[in-house]
């Protein structure tokens, strides 16, 4: 979350603090780590679909997931820039649904 973004002020609202708190209470573990068989506490309420300043999407509680700082600052950022989900599940299979191993054969 860059301080220079035009929507940075939204993160300072009471509505966001409540939404973030509720998200982390409902899902206290990092969703990405859990999908890879790891148990890591989440500290960030992350927007699944980037809001890019869309206030409705920003405050949409169904658009949130709980992440640890490492996943949010590394894998999630790479994913948003490249469009590729990085990582494997507990069986060693790619978690990216668009990876060719995960596509159904026609």
Automatic annotation (TrEMBL):
GO terms for molecular function: endonuclease activity. InterPro entries: HNH, HNH_nuc. The keyword Hydrolase applies. Keywords: Endonuclease, Hydrolase, Nuclease. It comes from the Bacteria. Pfam families: HNH. Residues 30-76 form the HNH domain. This is HNH endonuclease. It comes from Pseudomonas siliginis.
């Amino acid at each position: 979350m860059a301080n220079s973004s035009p929507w940075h002020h939204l993160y300072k609202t009471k509505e966001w603090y409540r939404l973030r708190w509720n998200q982390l209470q409902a899902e206290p573990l990092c969703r990405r780590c859990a999908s890879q068989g790891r148990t890591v506490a989440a500290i960030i309420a992350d927007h699944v679909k980037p809001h890019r300043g869309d206030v409705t999407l920003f405050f949409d509680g169904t658009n949130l997931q709980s992440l640890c700082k490492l996943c949010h600052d590394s894998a999630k950022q790479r994913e948003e820039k490249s469009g590729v989900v990085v990582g494997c599940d507990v069986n060693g299979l790619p978690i990216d649904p668009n990876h060719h191993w995960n596509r159904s054969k026609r």
